[in-house]
Amino acid sequence: MWSLKAWQGRFLPHPAPAHERLWAYAGWCNAVEGNTTFYATPTPETTTSWAEQTGPDFRFLAKLPKVVTHDHRLTGGDAELRTFLDAIAPLGPRAETLWIQLPGSFGPDDVPALAAFLRRLPDTHRYAVEVRHRDFFADPRAAARLEATLNAAGAEWVPFDTTAFFAQRPTSDAERDAWTKKPRMPLRAAALTDRPIVRYLGRDDTDLTVQGWQRWVGVVAGWLREGRSPTVFIHTPDNADAPALARRFHDEVRTRVPELAALPEPMPVEPLTLF
Question: How many CB atoms lie within 10 A of CB 239?
Fold first, then answer.
């Protein structure tokens, strides 16, 4: 996402044509979750526009279509998968890692389907898998089986950390909505590859959001010292402050790993004036 209404006039120029909003977003952050590709595959013309609005180091972590991961549960949808891969081809190396988000009903008994699916994917991309079945987090045998499958394919396990969010009851409409929709799983903070990925969900309250991510500051700093290149996505229930929070998280990591490159400098939202 890069055109949230709440960002316009704050983080993005307003008004701004739709084809310029990603360009403005890329001044704040150097990666984006490809949530829209989960619901609808873009045209090659659209992804060509995305490539033109971003530098070669910008990263799209595009989710595979829902029809492949949820409807066919990785055992079909070959035509839809080919269409998706063709559509994101214009992104080139920007789409280094593709995201396989699986439904909560996809459990340990389905791991063989995941293994077979990963084996038939092209080696032109890396792959990351997000699971939402509790047994993968609570049952060591199920976790080990999943890890072995991912390691065999060189794929990453994406944790979605909602522990800080669920630590207190919701206090707003946005939090109440997220309370009913977001997965509530035990914390996982281990990397399988040199490109770990983390999703973190905080609260409306910035102090609680920052307090909850402190564990990740240490984990990510450790990964960087090990030579890994992590990607971290910072969310709140309404995401209104997400770009600024993402930069704040990055700054906190840089205090521990000063050699970490700075994020790009955002473009001014309003023209500079003398008055």
Answer: 16
Structure tokens at 143: 């976790």
Inter-residue contact 253 to 188 (CB < 8 Å): no
- For residue 71, the Cα-to-chain-centroid distance in whole angstroms is 21
Q: How far apart are CA 91 and CA 95, in angstroms?
A: 6
Beta strands at 160-161 and 156-157: parallel, antiparallel or unpaired:
unpaired
Reported residue count of the chain is 275
Contact 13, 25 (CB under 8 A): no
Q: How far apart are the first and last CA of the chain?
A: 34
What whole-number distance in Å separates Cα of residue 129 and Cα of residue 150? Answer: 8
SS3 2: coil
Q: Which amino acid is at 88?
A: I
Nearest to 129 by CA among 109, 152, 99: 99
Q: In the Cβ-directed half-sphere of 142, how many Cα atoms lie within 13 Å?
A: 15
Which has the closest alpha carbon to 102: 124, 134, 80, 126? Answer: 134
Residue type (1 letter), 97: T
Tens place of pLDDT for every residue, the chain, 275 residues? 788 999 998 998 888 788 889 999 999 999 999 899 999 999 999 999 999 999 999 999 999 999 999 999 999 999 999 999 999 999 999 998 999 999 999 999 999 999 999 999 999 999 999 999 999 999 999 999 999 999 999 999 999 999 999 999 999 999 999 999 999 999 999 999 999 999 999 999 999 999 999 999 999 999 999 999 999 999 999 999 999 999 999 999 999 999 999 999 898 776 544 44
Cα separation, 165 vs 169, whole angstroms: 8
Paired residues of 156 in beta bridges? 128
Q: Distance (Å, rounded) from C-alpha 243 to C-alpha 235?
A: 9
